[in-house]
Amino acid sequence: MKKNLVIIAIFNCVWLGAQHGYKSPYRVGLKLGYSLHTLTGDLTKTKPGGNLLGGFWFQLKMNKKWTAQTELLLLDKGIGVRGTGKSPHFVNLHYFEVPILFQYHRKMINFEFGLGLGYMINYREHLYGNETPDLVNNYPFIRRELSFNVGIGCTLNDKWALGVRLSHSLLPVRGAVPLVSKESYNRLLALSVTRQLKKKKASDPQE
């Protein structure tokens, strides 16, 4: 986790230095959304899980068409729906995640892509309604995650926007377990709404 925090700190310092030195406009805001997520290499046939996500974002304008954006999100990944009887395998992975994205804007539509750095702060696993400590202890989930993100968004007005994003682990989050020959990767599809809190104007002489 310390390495991830160092990377995040360096990245944010570079951005803050850039906007201070070149007077580039920036925007800051909140994000709230809902995600559907699954885990490859599953032990059983299980439906995707669904959870809320939330956090903050910071966007820096690079030129007329491109922006760079970093976020700090709290979200869940994994598979299955707990307590419904429809998901024999339930895995909940609770992450802090920092996406680092580049966005291309065309009128009211924007396209985005980039990497995400995640750190799992908590996890829980149930198989047929029972906790599986032996499985978790012998085949633990990897705390750090590196993912690739791609998405599309629509600007509603000066403050509100909608977005859809697909995320997939680039490295496995768990090795192969008994009866399953494949490693596990996170997959996530998220629909979100963002609210701008502050905007810096390049023409403002006081900034």
Describe the structure.
This protein has a single domain (2-199), classed as Porin (Beta Barrel). The relative contact order is 0.20. It is elongated, with a radius of gyration of 19 Å. The chain contains 2 helices and 9 strands. It has an 8-stranded antiparallel beta barrel with strand order 1-2-3-4-5-7-8-9. A hairpin with a 2-residue loop joins strand 4 and strand 5. The chain has 207 residues and is mainly beta.
The gist of it:
The longest helix is centred in the first third of the chain and has 21 residues, at 2-22.
Helix percent reads: 10-25%
Structural class: mainly beta
Which CATH architecture is right?
Beta Barrel
Give the beta-strand count: 9
Distance, first to last CA: 34 Å
Which percent band covers the strand fraction? over 45%
Coarse morphology? elongated
In the sheet with the most strands, the strands line up as: 1-2-3-4-5-7-8-9
Number of helical regions: 2
Reading the helices and strands in chain order gives HEEEEEEHEEE
CATH class term: Mainly Beta
Question: Would you give the CATH topology?
Answer: Porin
Low-confidence stretches: 202-207
Main sheet makeup: 8 strands, antiparallel, barrel
* Tally of discrete structural domains: 1
Keywords:
single chain, 207 residues, mainly beta, Porin, 8-stranded antiparallel β-barrel, 2 helices, 9 strands, 56% strand, disordered C terminus
Q: Which SSEs are present, and which pair or pack?
A:
Layout: H1 2-22, E1 26-39, E2 49-61, E3 66-79, E4 89-106, E5 109-127, E6 130-131, H2 133-138, E7 144-155, E8 160-169, E9 186-199
Antiparallel strand pairs: 1-2, 1-9, 2-3, 3-4, 4-5, 5-6, 5-7, 7-8, 8-9
